[in-house]
Design brief:
heterotrimer, A alpha/beta, B mainly alpha, C mainly alpha, A: alpha/beta, D-Maltodextrin-Binding Protein, domain 2, 2 domains, ten-stranded mixed beta sheet, 11 helices, 21% strand, B: mainly alpha, 20 helices, 74% helix, 1% strand, globular, BUG (chain A), Bug_dom1 (chain A), Tripartite tricarboxylate transporter substrate binding protein (chain A)
């Protein structure tokens, strides 16, 4: 046994080429979640496209990514090889968890993918349009129960924004948080709640099968091939997407940042990455550089306002 | 083509030698990673998924099924032999299984777990193939109030696992309930009992707790008996294989476990642990040897293990028919399916029958491979316990911490292991049972959340908790489970009095 | 744990001090819960069972159990404890603590190797200069397998960096 182990160590040491890891990507979540999948897909694509020789993925799970970002900001300062995956959920989690480390403490590179929110009702529901739902909400906010993901997450934020846009007190919404997309979907299908709100992808196959009725989506323009109005054209000024991004370490030089940015420009255009997004069902909402930084600042500001309105952040 | 033809075709494809080899490789890999405590089936599948991408569609689907079942099964081996449950669904297995292993009956315990898993997997996979659309309709009727009633029932029946002292059993349960409060409150997003520590915001990880309470607490306790204490572990006593009596006591438990586990797994918020709890309680109630429970009763391994595997197949019901991932493992599987061009949902059986039946055939083959791999290994596994004490326990701790580090390499998590290990040691010294802590930690938040959801939906109307027929039915069963034993005991006393009166005549 | 130092033989008709300590711990736990949840806001208030309600029930349950424990302590209802040896426990706790503190600076293999050696020592195998190096080599192999086969990076230190 001992011989075997020694032999395998030697063999392994010799088999590994002697170059250093090019990028190490932190997924601030446990293996398997959305961020982890993004990190591991990036790993595969960056290596396959020869943008990077060897990419490592590290998982630091906990508290909506706030544990990961804190560790990333403190330990990787100035390291041009360190990357971190993150997303919109982190924006809310940083606020609700009162995290001392925020997205200002890392260097955002690019928004990679995103998913729009969809508002649905069971097919048997008497609510036919988003207008019906808003009318019911105005009449008695408590009587409209919304099923969605965890409290303070994207679904909850979107619900608050809708109520606010409709002129209803966001603290009065009857939002029922479920522990996962699956559980929420089951409650909606079983007509346990009035309406459901979650990423469009979660509902897509149910909508196609006719067991859920899609009332509206939260995108800027109508989604291609989807027969539903946007919230905006329904006179509710709400545009929100649950995006995922990649960020670099704080304290890197402008050249280092530009180099990373160039690598991701290359990745975005590559066939491998496009193919990955297609098989995973991720929408390409790529946005990089100053445009992304501006959008990020906007997202953070609007999220803070609505979380205060709902009462989740003081 | 009819359902049956598709299945036969899938089976024929899966039986090709190359595909059988893929199944074997998948099962082996899945078992190897799945045995690590703290790394449950979800993580196992997530980590090994890329391995399958190298193969063609059929081959990768088969290997994937193998990894899934291997990961599910891996946890029970360590539960039984080392008292370190690999995931929350095999915690109950440790209760009786490890007692059996210590009494030299590790062989039969492992065998009944393997065969029980196979039987349950077989029945449940077939049920998945033929009654999934029907089951899923029932599962959707379950809303928050029905789940709350189910949790009440689980609390009451599981109290049979609380040991002999009511005071100490309840104290353990309440310690578990108190610990379950730690972290972000699901429904309002506020943190409770986290004291500003970010690592506590996600609450206390059940697997960390189980490893600390069982493996570390136990190791400390045994060490504290001193080197002079006689070695209480006997690796093999009697046959390594199941005796006729073992078979007789196991087969009904397997079937009952399957019957309990499958529907609960199919419920979107059921959870595999609940099935194992209920199965354990049922076996204890029905057993002809209730006195053996807590000392190594084979039914207590056979039932929960079957329930665990049946519920794993049960989770596939909402996943395939509705596209509903109802557990972390199911969410990973969904990601895997997408890789194979399989889009789970209500239309899947209609639009993509070949792939679905290919998957179901793969699951059946993987299930068989699991048995083929594990039964011959039973003898070898049991030898693990003949390792001298210092190396055995040092190995257990290495292994226990490895799982935790693999899932979350944080100093804080290791600190929790140490702290709860010490608490568990203290509890053992003072005769407090360990299992209720875990029961409270798992069931507490579920019960609380469902109650609050039900009341929020009804806008505070308490009567909704009793007005649904299913909820009312479950609550009545729970009430009976609580009252009937009391009546029987009272009447039993009456019988004794009558006998005494009669003998005086 | 300080609890273990209490004498294991309880004399008759005298309260079981260890049990009283346990009751006190339960009371403190209940107090901490009640104090912590008192600051929670009842958001969304459509359910009368808010974020602080169930913790309250649990806390009152703990208080009830504490009282019951005190009664049991005075009635001598607690089981007789077996004699505990402190030394082996200290060895193992030291091993776990060492692993926890060393895993960041020194990496998985050295930290876990020390845990292995100290635990074995707790069970009587005291030749640390043999057990620790062997354990470190085994852990290094485990680290390598995790990193290559599962692409899961366990914490790396000087030894692991040699392999990278």
């Amino acid at each position: 046994m001992k011989h075997f182990i020694l032999a395998s160590i030697l063999a392994g040491a010799m088999a590994l080429p002697a170059y250093a890891a090019d990028y190490s990507i932190m997924a601030p979540a446990a293996p398997g979640g959305g961020w982890d999948q993004t990190a591991r897909s990036l790993q595969t694509a960056l290596q396959k496209e020869k943008i990077s020789n060897r990419v490592q993925v590290m998982n630091v799970p906990g508290a909506g990514g706030t544990i990961g970002i804190a560790q990333f900001a403190s330990q990787q300062k100035g390291n041009p090889n360190a990357l971190m995956v993150g997303g919109y959920v982190m924006v809310g989690a940083i606020l609700t968890n009162k995290s001392p480390v925020t997205l200002k403490d890392v260097t955002p590179i690019a928004r990679l993918t995103g998913e729009y929110e969809a508002i649905v009702v069971p097919a048997s529901s008497e609510i036919k349009t988003i207008g019906d739902l808003v009318a019911k909400l105005k009449e008695n906010p408590g009587a409209v129960s919304w099923g969605g993901g965890s409290a303070g997450g994207t679904d909850h934020i979107a619900t608050g924004l809708i109520a606010k846009a409709a002129g209803v007190d966001p603290t009065k919404i009857n939002y029922i948080a479920f522990s996962g997309g699956g559980e929420a979907l089951a409650a909606i299908l079983g007509s346990q709640v009035t309406a459901g709100i979650s990423s469009f992808g979660e509902f897509e196959s149910q909508i196609k099968a006719g067991s859920l009725r899609l009332l509206a989506v939260s995108s800027e323009q109508r989604i291609q091939g989807v027969d539903a109005p946007t919230l905006k054209e329904s006179k509710l000024d709400v545009v929100i997407q649950n995006w995922r991004m990649v960020a670099a370490a704080p304290g890197i030089s402008a050249e280092q940042k530009a180099a990373i940015l160039a690598d991701f420009e290359k990745l975005e255009k590559s066939a491998t990455w496009q193919e990955t997004m297609k098989t995973k069902g991720w929408a390409d909402t790529y946005l990089a550089g100053p445009a992304f930084e501006e959008q990020l600042a906007k997202d953070i500001a609007s999220t803070e306002t609505i979380l205060k309105d709902i009462g989740l952040v003081k | 083509m009819s359902t049956f033809q598709f299945l036969l075709e899938g089976l024929a494809a899966a039986m090709l030698p190359m595909n059988l080899l893929y199944a074997l490789v998948g099962v082996t890999l899945g078992t190897m990673v799945g045995v690590l405590p703290g790394i449950g089936p979800a993580t196992t599948v997530a980590l090994l998924l890329p391995v399958t991408y190298q193969l063609d569609a059929t081959g990768s689907l088969i290997m994937f099924a193998g990894i899934y079942y291997g990961g599910m099964y891996g946890g029970s081996t360590t539960s039984i032999l080392l008292n370190t449950p690999g995931e929350s669904a095999s915690i109950v297995t440790a209760l009786e299984g490890n007692k059996m292993a210590r009494a030299g009956r590790g062989g039969p315990a492992l065998a009944t777990a393997a065969i029980g898993s196979f039987v349950a997997g077989l029945i449940a996979t077939l049920a998945l193939a033929f009654v999934a659309p029907f089951i899923v309709k029932i599962a959707l009727v379950f809303g928050p109030r029905e789940y709350f009633a189910l949790m009440v029932l689980a609390f009451i029946t599981v109290s049979s696992a609380f040991g002999d002292s009511t005071l100490r059993g309840l104290t353990s349960l309440f310690i578990g309930l108190a610990l379950s409060l730690v972290g972000i409150d699901q429904l309002t997003g506020q943190n409770r009992l986290s004291f500003g520590v970010p690592d506590l915001l996600d609450g206390i990880e059940v697997t960390t707790m189980a490893v600390a309470m069982f493996a570390i607490g136990e190791t400390l306790y045994i060490a504290a008996q001193g080197a002079t204490a006689p070695d209480k572990i006997e690796a093999v006593k009697g046959s390594v294989w199941m005796t006729g009596q073992d078979w007789a006591r196991s087969w009904k438990a397997w079937l009952r476990g399957t019957l309990i586990g499958f529907p609960i797994g199919a419920m979107p918020a059921g959870g595999a642990e609940i099935g194992t709890f209920l199965s354990y309680a049922t076996e204890k109630k029905l057993s002809k040897h209730p006195e053996e429970f807590g000392k190594g009763a084979i039914e207590g391994v056979a039932g929960p293990e079957a329930a665990n595997n049946a519920s794993a197949a049960g989770t596939l019901v909402p996943l395939l028919t509705l596209g509903l991932p109802t557990s972390a493992t199911a969410a990973i599987m969904l990601a895997g399916f997408q890789q194979y061009g399989l889009q789970p949902g209500p239309l899947l059986f209609a639009t993509n029958p070949q792939l679905v039946w290919g998957l179901i055939a793969s699951l059946l083959i993987a299930n068989l491979m699991l048995l083929v791999l594990n039964l011959p290994l039973v003898g070898l596994w049991v030898r693990l316990l003949t390792i001298p004490k210092p190396w055995l326990y040092a190995g257990i701790l290495l292994f226990a911490t490895l799982g935790t580090i693999g899932a979350n390499p944080s100093v804080f998590e290791l600190g929790m292991l140490l702290l709860f290990g010490l608490i568990a040691y203290g509890m053992r010294v003072f005769g407090y049972p360990i299992a209720p802590v875990i029961v409270g930690l798992i069931l507490g938040p579920l019960a609380e959340q469902q109650l609050r959801r039900a009341l929020a939906i009804s806008q505070g109307d308490v009567t909704v908790l009793f007005t649904s027929p299913i909820a009312a039915g479950l609550l009545i069963v729970a009430a009976l489970a609580l009252i009937v034993p009391l009546i029987l005991r009272a009447r039993g006393r009456g019988d004794v009095l009558n006998q005494m009166a009669a003998s005086e005549d | 744990m300080s609890l273990d130092k209490t004498p294991s033989t309880s004399m008759q008709r005298r309260p079981d001090w260890a049990a009283l300590v346990i009751a006190a711990i339960l009371l403190v736990l209940a107090g901490v819960i009640l104090f912590d949840v008192s600051r929670l806001r009842d958001l969304g208030g459509y359910s009368q069972v808010g974020p602080a309600t169930v913790p309250g029930w649990i806390a009152y349950g703990l208080i009830g159990l504490a009282i019951w424990t005190v009664v049991a302590a005075f009635r001598g209802d607690f089981p007789v404890r077996e004699k505990q040896e402190v030394k082996p426990v200290v060895w193992i706790v030291a091993g776990l603590a060492a692993q926890m503190l060393l895993i960041r600076p020194l990496g998985f293999s050295i930290a876990t190797g020390i845990l292995f050696g100290l635990t074995a020592a707790g069970f009587g195998a005291r030749r640390l200069w043999i057990s620790i190096p062997i354990a470190i080599v085994i852990c290094l192999a485990i680290w390598w397998v995790f990193s290559v086969v599962l692409s899961l990076s366990l914490p790396a230190g000087p030894l692991e960096n040699l392999l990278q």
